[in-house]
User: Fold these one by one.
Assistant:
Number 1:
Amino acid sequence: MTLLAPAPRLGAAVRTPPNVAELQARINGMQASAPPSSSVPLRADLARLLPAGIRQGAMYQVRGGTSLMTAVLADASAAGRWVAWLGWPDVGAEALEAAGLRLDRTALIPQPGTHWLSALSSLADAMSVLAVRPPRSARVAPAELARLAGRLRERGTTLLVDAEWTGVQAQFRLDAHVWSGIGRGAGVLMDHRLRVSVRDHSGRVRSGLVGVTEPLSASVSRTERSRPDLERTTLGPVSWAVSA
Amino acid sequence: MTRALVVWVPDWPIVAAATELALDARAPLALIHRGVVFACSAAARSAGVVRGLSQREAQYRCPTLTVARYDESTDARRFEPCVRALEAAVPGVHLVRPGLLAVRARGPVRYFGGELEAAQALRSSLLEHGLADVRVGLASGVFTAEQVARSTSVLEPVRVLPATETAAFLAPLPVGLVSPDERTATLLRRLGVHTLGQFAALPRDDIRRRFGAAGVWAAEQAAGNDPARVVPREVPPEFTVEFTSDTPLERSDEIAFSMREHADRFDAQLRAKRLVCTAVRVELDDEHGASHGRVWLHPRWFTAADLVDRVRWQLDGLFRLQQPGADPRLEVEEFQRAGIVRVRLIPERAESTAHHESGLWGGGPDQRVHHALSRVQSMLGPEGVGTFELAGGRTPADRQVFVPWGDAPPPQTRRDQPWPGALTGVPPASVLQQAEPVVLCDAQGAGIRIDARGTLSGEPAQLHLAPGEAPRAITAWAGPWPLHERWWDAAAAHACVRCQLVDASGEAWLVVGDEQGWRVEARYD
């Protein structure tokens, strides 16, 4: 079953100057009842892989882990959109903040259990973006899925699912983690990149490197660097690209 | 100038203390506050004891003197029934201080048909209450009426001063009665101003220049134009709602169902006063007489349905108490499974609805967010939904705090402090709720141990996450970083080493090792 997202209103965008269109997009982002014509902010290195962007009211499959999901969400949250994590009991708050998410606009429902689908449809009313990891045994009937998709489309809520899911606009897949700063018995994980491939609606696959988190703030690392033992063992950036 | 009626109970602190301590108010009695006499009975006064005398001096002047410590709360508490007695006779009573009440004279005068009749009627209402000596003064302004009441005697306990005689009555009184403090009174006397009449005659501009606004206020009082008004006291309304059940209830849905109507009443009472409740204390009494209380906060305000939810959550928490993971905020002594016989809703914080009015275009997206999250919360329980706060600490789990939606964030350690030993570099994407035990082996498959100096017995090469699972090959690692926390406190001390591992699939792990073995604390996934 494939659900087609409604076509963007091209005529309106052409006639109005760009700054007005931008403002309209922002207003639409705040009003969930507005038609889902605008897109959700996406960081530049991911937007290169998915030129169509992430649309409001659509569903996307994001497989590969917390970091990839964080990277997809980061700019939407930084722009002030409400984001909810449904079914992620172990999310690290510091990683979210380091990726640019606003923690005061990030809701967490760590263990929705069997209520996950009803919680999901409640949240669809209010949140801008939902990051969902359904329980392993979860099965969604096609009728339920259609109802959910309709609700998301009506409310303009974007759904990012970390599971096999039908009716998605695009699929994000993590191919490999790329670490730097760590050696054998030396260094520390300093830079984290993801090799991501995105299969868009037409089936075209693009892949590339996506940065996730900047290292922790200077104030924290400074105290750590003042430890001479660590200073000596740091070998400088060593890249370890490991393919999955 | 408003006519005011002042009811004065002479030596009220003595009357109150004598009743409280079961002493005879006619015997010599003095109340001591900060080492000096604060109040004394008539018998003591006739022996030469005056206010402000040191205790030793007072006892020297009157050897039979009984000395007690002055207690402000006794004063106020004992006077409360007298205020109610007067309030029963006339509305709008202003409690100036314990022992002194003021009432606007116009109403009672019209009702009782004359100023003297009104004064006598109010006096008799207090005499019926059991007070021995009550004086009443009626004059223009509260200050003048008080001075009139003080000028009465036991033989002539009621005095009415016509408005025209106000200035003449006040003029000979000492200036110390109006001066804002003792220093000003002394200064005025040194300047040759001894009476209220002399003070009132001074030009107001000069008084303002020399003594400021407080001086002008005092001069107006001295002239008989008391700027103070009678401010009737307002008894705060009682909003607490109590539900009592004849049979002990043991199921939370039973209680929640019975509570619905009471929650509605609680809400309606507050709304009638244009208030909303943002913090409520729910108290549950069980059949054994134990009481369980908890304060619930709300990010907006409590509706009736929210209150029922809170009662149900608290009951669920209470019934779950014997299981691990019980709510530590519940204040319970000696819990045993018992039916609930009483539920009380006490508003901890009530705010004006004006501060919570939604905007002209609705409350914006946050109102919707709140509704959605509350709905999920009523599905999953209070801990089911929340947000993160960052805190200080050395382990990733210490550095984040999950705050249930609507709760106040708990007091936290400061994040901007240095925390030497905290991890640097990339923060872990996943922080495990429960650290999972793992086995870390070297290339030969032998378990890696940590010696007393915190060094590893070999190079980590394999990570066994679960007993049945194939080991993961380690391609890169960093550490070990020793961590000694709270070594000064034997109970909380914690020593371990930490390593970062990158396995062949590219996932990275933060493992912690100590005497108990290795555990995964966080994952970089």
Note: DSSP finds nine helices and eleven strands in chain A.
Number 2:
Amino acid sequence: MLTLSSTREVIAMGVHCRIDIAAPQAPLLVDSAIQLLTDLENLWSRFRPTSDISRLNQANGLPLHVDSRTISLIAAMKQAHVDTRGSFNPCQLPTQIAMGDIRSLRSPGNTVIPHNSGVFASLEEIQFHSTSSVSLPPHMTLDAGGIGKGFAVDLIAQQAIEHGATYVCVNLGGDIRVNEASSTPHDSPVDIMHPLQHDTIVSTISLRNGAVATSARNARQRDGRGIHNHIMGTDTDIVGASVIASSATWADVWTKHLILTANGLQDVDNVGLAGLIVWSDGRVEKSHHWKDFEQC
Amino acid sequence: MMNDPLLPPPPPPVSSRTTPKKSRRPGVANSAKILATGLATTATLGLTAGYALASKTETNQAPVNTGTPSVPTNATPTVPAPATPEIVTPSVDNNSVATPEVTNPPVVEIPVPTVAPAQPGNSWGNGGNNQQSSGSR
């Protein structure tokens, strides 16, 4: 059967998204991927009052029925918070909003949270009551943010593979997932861009199956709008980080740990991943496993 | 004697008993009735005490120690649950206003895929279309 390649580029979740799929039904799979991306944005955007995340942020502790994919996302948030010893924290929305990060940078829409919302240091009190019901503790709010993008990328790639794709590459604002069959001639080089010098490549890697994510402190400051630092926590001189992992979800989570932890590269090595950090003075530091993916 | 209207009327004449008064000596029938009642009461008390004593003996019967406890060799001993204090439920006033029952919904665990390393590519520099990972720009 003839294998076709299809590519589509859209703006979604506030960032640029590119989807490449090789499959006998590639155009249809790309259409399905775009539809899935749209659905997930409707579920997780904090700028849409009807999204699962917005409804949970307004639920004041009451259990709420949500999409099963939202349940999986929040479960991943809880696990990530534990595994990174709190570096990854998706409930700092009140601080972000207090600093002025209210509006979407791409589309109309504001973030609305209760006035008595607070920042939480633990996610233990988030409770799942079924695969479609969850409750946050009163005054807690969530921001899907980067982990939402990573989770979406993983779901899109998984859907394409399950429907016969021999190659899929999804790039959602720097969270990239690649899956390809061993017989395909595709190569998936990825340029890791400098967070401050936008035209500078700090490393080029190649992936066959896996993901890479890049986070930067200034990612929510564009064209004079937004805030200069959206990654709250410990102050370090690290301005950006990239992580290579099996999934974009985990790759994105560990970038936050790298930015907020001075010795984070050692932690990333310890869990078997590869990491890269960029210091404010321009220095680039790579973990031990990074060279396994880096093109010479 | 004259009938003086200021004087109280004279008491009526007391009639004399015409039949002889019977003797009050207890008879044989009464003695038998008392004896029968006493015997029945004694029997009832005796039976009640007997049943009570038998019941008490069964309750206090100690279990027979068979030596080795009957626990499988591969079983993990479990710690007995601590004694919980008896909870006395307050009586409910049927005339009070009914309130909706608030129940805690069950809590379930949601599995999360574990973190794992990626698989690197193996065909360097074949002129492919490079992606850019740039932190959400």
Note: Residues 53 and 197 of chain A are 34 Å apart (CA to CA).
